[in-house]
Amino acid sequence: MNDPLFPLLLALRYMHIFGAIALMGATIFMRFALVPAVAKLDPAAKATLHEEVRSRWSKFVMAAAGLLLISGVLNLALTGRYNFDPIPGIPRGGYQMIVGIKFLLSLPIFFIASVLAGRSDLAKRFQSSAKFWMNVNLTLAVLMVLIGGGLRFVGRTLKAPATPPAPAAAIVPQDRPNASLRRRGEIE
Description:
The chain is mostly helical. The protein has helices spanning 6-38, 43-78, 94-116, 121-128, 130-151, 179-184; strands at 82-84, 156-158.
C-alpha cells in the first residue's frame, strides 16, 4: 500500500471491527442464549443474574461504542483524501453520504445498547422489553454491516497533492494591463 497513513488506517479498521464484534456479538448471545435461559429462573435469581451481567457488560458497551465512534469519525474525516468511484444510482458524493447515513444509524445502536446495560429508570423500562430492543438493535446492526460491506468494494484512489496557488503579486489583470503601473504612480 502506498498510502502514508496505512498504519493509522489499519489501526482504525481493527478498532472498528473489534468494537462491532463486541457490541453485535454480545447482543446476539444475550438475545438468543441468555434471555431465553434466564426466563426460566425464579424472579430473585433472575434479578441477581441480571445485575451481575449488567454491571460487567456496561463497561464493554462503553468501550465498544468508544472504539466504534472514534474509528468511525476518523474514517469519515479521512474520506476527503480519496476520489471514490461512482456508486450506481447514487448522486455524486454518494460514498460520503452513505457513510454519513451509516454513522447516523450507529447512534440509536449505541443508545439502545447503553440503556440496556444501564441502571436508570429509562434503562429499567427498556429492560422490561429487552427482547424487542435487542431485535431492533440487531436489525440496525445487520443493516450497518451490510452497508459497510458494500462500501468496502467502492473503488478509491488517493487524491493528487494540491499545488500551491500562484503568489498574488505575479497575477496581472489581463483586461487592464497598465493597472499595476497606475497603482505605483508610473502612469497617469
